[in-house]
Amino acid sequence: MKKIISIFIMSSAFLASNAQTNSENPLLKKWSGPYGGVPAFNEYKVSDIKAAVETSIQEKLQETDVIANNPKAPTFTNTVAALELTGKAFARIYAVYGIFSSNMNSPEFAPIETEMSPKISALNDKIFQNKKLFSRIEKIYNSPEMKKLNSEQQRLVWLYYTNFVREGAKLNEVSKEKVGKINQDLAGLFTKFSQNLLAEEHNQYVELTSEKDFDGLPNELKNAAMAEAKERNLNVMGCIANTRSSIEPFLTFSNRRDLREKAWSIFVKRGDNGNANDNNATLVEILKLRTEKAKLLGFPSFAHWSLSNTMAKSPEKTLELMESVWKPAVEKVHQDVAEMQKLVDAEGGNFKIAPWDYRYYAEKVRKAKYDLDQNEVKQYLQLEKLREGMFWVAGELFNLSFKQVTDVPVYHPDVRVWEVSNRLSGKPVGLWYFDPYARAGKRSGAWMNSYRDQQKLDGNVITIVSNNCNFIKGNANEPVLISWEDASTLFHEFGHALHGLCSNVTYPSLSGTSVARDYVEFPSQILERWLPTPEVLNRFALHYQTGKPLPQSLVERIEKAANFNEGFSTVETISSSLVDMRLHLTTDVVDPHKFEKETLAKLNMPSEIVMRHRIPQFGHLFSSDGYAAGYYSYLWADVICADAFEAFTEGKGPYDKAVAKRLYSYVFSIGNTIDQEKAYKKFRGRNATSDALMRSRNFPIIKK
User: Fold this and answer.
1) Left (φ > 0), alpha (ψ -120 to 50) or beta: where does 461 sit?
2) Strand order from edge to edge, sheet including 416-422
3) Which residues are catalytic?
4) C-alpha separations of 84 from 1, 44, 161, 272, 514 in Å
5) 3-state secondary structure of 459
6) pTM, to two decimals
7) Were 617 and a residue from 57, 270, 426, 626 both cysteine, which residue would form a disulfide, CB within 3.0 to 4.6 Å?
8) Per-residue pLDDT tens for 497-512?
């Protein structure tokens, strides 16, 4: 350890020269307090962010240059392990920067993000394109020392080497410069796309001006709509915000077909309104730059480059999987629509089911076919009780315990923090921040963040993670009731958090969720399977008024309806996945409207459904490279998830201790210390097959 730390002595002059300037900037201070230090959210201001980011970038570059220019022969310790310890200040500041971007975006922060995002991208390029640094990594990768390293160290060297090559380390200087310029331009465009989308979601809404406009809405949705109008200072009775958490329940329950169409329209046209926030030109430029980058890096398309470090490896494998599930899902949709159309006709409705009718009439069919009313179920789905249920599941599977703490600063009054410990040893393993409610400046959807990754290289560093949602708060002093779908999302995102909290590795780059993109959704998606277990429902699905658990008759109806509407959700998601993959396989300049229309027509997309994310609002693809040519990952991971959960059902059930131990040992705790395909084989004893997915969705299994 002393050898690693000593290489940074040369950068002390730089740090000293900036100490006086930056001493008053709280963002540049090390995290202090309990748990190995926590972010001082009570001290951070938007005005401090720019200087902090710029200073931490220079610090990281200085530390990296010390390693690259080390006169001693490259070794694992003085190069790869040393790189793991660089950029501590930048990591801290970038975590806070990300919170401002996703959870507290504001007119004051937006221009800072616009200016800083290309500079952050340039930092990565300067490291990846550092010729001396790559030479040292390459020598270690090809040296006899490699065989003497332990398996985790070998994996880390492999990861550094392949990432550097993938980002252009072997290119000539002219091509490196071009790639760097493209990356900086992309970073700026990603920020523009995200800010446009956030503006569309914030600025557009559906006004409810009379009692008739509330027809069909459950009480909690009425209350939330009234609270939204009040928060926006609107002189109307209620308001439906242009976010998924508000729009989808409105489409499900509103008896006003005209307002459903209006709500559906503003939601699917986000970023596609020909106004100042239109995203079409931005995304076209992103696609052009990605194609240029892929060609410079030696790949036939961006999709090929993007999949080069995934489990799937090639676009062809993903297309094969998606297309195998597509046709059965479309057929199921046609069957479901036929049942809905019968209801429309029986009611005397002189119209064909349209996209803004689908959720509304699907709910009516659910009631008629299964005697299951979502509003009836919702009375038992209290947000806080379900949170307790998640904690209980984490305890049963992974021996984790949760204790709320109040001595840790938070960035918003809605945020709460829990200390997470191993209940056998009593030792803390991390902190879990929970930010559950929608608000202005917060992007829509639900996600997990890691503020600090677990590692043992620099002491026993415990992780700090967060779950962020957009539930509608409603009236004060009333429990927040959520839908079954939202409850599944809650468990899903908590699965990501557990992936971070269970991490038990040495090196930060291999920690927690730092796995292949098409594997990272597996731990989150499998955790959804514990929501419908009797153990959770009986303990935590309690009526918000009576405190009584879900009656067995209702549990049985939920089980019978488990696969209801599976065709809709599958088609909605896979259509987005297929469009994503084909967008990134083409090297032609696209017209987004024409491309979307023609691609969906070739797929025989049911006219009653739209993509879950239309191209001009597809933040997964265009707010970063994260899921570009990668939205298929949800289906890929669902194949693994369905297969993995059958290991429990083939055993003693969902809480089988032996299977849970294997799940912890070979999935949740090992991060990226081993190839994910090999890790899964260790857990399951074989590769995953798609048969379990088809069974779980009640689709026919097609034998090859």
Assistant:
1) beta
2) 400-405, 416-422, 428-437, 463-471, 447-452
3) 493
4) 12, 26, 14, 42, 14
5) strand
6) 0.92
7) 270
8) 999 999 999 999 999 9
